[in-house]
Automatic annotation (TrEMBL):
The gene is tauD. It holds the Pfam family TauD. Keywords: Dioxygenase, Iron, Metal-binding, Oxidoreductase. Residues 42-299 form the TauD/TfdA-like domain. One of its GO terms (cellular component) is cytoplasm. It comes from Collibacillus ludicampi. GO terms for molecular function: metal ion binding; taurine dioxygenase activity. Gene3D superfamilies: Clavaminate synthase-like. Belongs to the TfdA dioxygenase family. This is Taurine dioxygenase.
Length: 309
């Protein structure tokens, strides 16, 4: 048989694989929402879809309600916003985050200067396991609505973080996939991420504290109403109602959507930089390419609500 001859015994239809040949839909706003200028600070986009730097806001100062309203609008528009040269304390970081609501305490990650702060200290003694796309804490019944990360020390090279717009990931799915997943729910669980470091008794305790959470595969953003993918390889275990093979095939296809560069922004950290992201509208990926050099950061997260479709 010639190598150029199609073998009729070999399957041509591979589940959930497609070659994209069209123009991608890249829209920052929900339908019907128009762009408005910012009057209290400058917004510098880092790309056409997601990610912008905020210039002209000093987080050491008191944030007025007018500035907070514009910052919130920028967060909803750009999904993740960045601040440079913010020499603030841990207490000021917590105070800024509390403007958006109650702060959660992470049950498994190392605590910083207060219970609300997660301390990330990555160096030669800690290679890190952060290089996977994820939303934060979707194993909770009410996952974090947003999160803020302050990086205090940075390696000379490496250690960037990427964010992907999960509404764009949904927008560009084939129609048959949208029809397949709309209305489906998935199980989210912490066990395979954090369970390996727990004793059997500790695991049983935390599984009782955090029973498996069932969230829609496609959620509506609680503020904008946009449909967005809400499955991630860190915490999403399986899709309810499908057999395990079908569930895994479909999940792997959906996980791959945030890998598309058109949906992403990549942020190069500098000392005293801050990222503030919408956890219901993005996934993020911390690049672990700086070992054995050091990166030090502090993160706080704002309590969210139960996702709905």
């Amino acid at each position: 048989m010639s190598k150029y001859t199609i073998d009729p015994t070999r399957p041509l239809n591979i589940p959930y694989r497609n070659r994209y040949t069209g123009t991608r839909i890249l829209r920052r706003f929900p339908e019907g929402v128009e762009e408005k200028p910012y009057t209290l600070f400058q917004v510098k986009p880092l790309g056409p879809l997601i990610g912008a730097e905020i210039v002209g806001v000093d987080l050491r100062d008191s944030i007025t309600s007018e500035v907070k309203e514009e910052l919130n609008r920028a967060l909803l528009e750009w999904k993740v916003i960045f601040f440079r040269d913010q020499k603030i304390s841990s207490e000021q970081l917590v105070a800024f985050a509390r403007l958006w609501g109650e702060l959660e305490k992470h049950p498994f990650l190392p605590e910083g200067n207060s219970p609300e702060i997660v301390r990330f200290a990555k160096d030669k003694n800690s290679k890190g396991f952060e290089n996977i796309w994820h939303n934060d804490v979707t194993f909770r019944l009410t996952p974090a609505r947003a999160a803020i990360l302050r990086v205090i020390e940075v390696p000379e090279l490496g250690g960037d973080t990427l964010w992907a717009d999960t509404a764009a990931a949904y927008d560009n799915l084939p129609e048959e996939i949208k029809e397949r997943i709309d209305g489906l729910t998935a199980i989210h669980d912490f066990t395979h991420v954090f369970g390996h470091s727990l004793t059997p008794d500790e695991l049983a305790f935390w599984q009782a504290e955090f029973p498996i959470a069932e969230h829609p595969v496609v959620i509506k953003h609680p503020v904008t109403g946009r449909k967005t993918l809400f499955v991630n390889p860190d915490f999403t275990a399986r899709i309810v109602g499908l057999d395990l093979e079908e569930s895994e095939n479909l999940l792997q296809y959906l996980f791959q959507q945030v890998h598309i560069p058109e949906y992403q922004v990549r942020f190069k950290w500098e000392a005293n930089s801050i990222a503030f992201w919408d956890n219901f509208a993005t996934q993020h990926y911390a690049v672990a390419d700086y070992y054995p050099n050091r990166r030090l950061g502090e993160r706080v997260a704002i309590v969210g609500e139960r996702p709905s479709n």
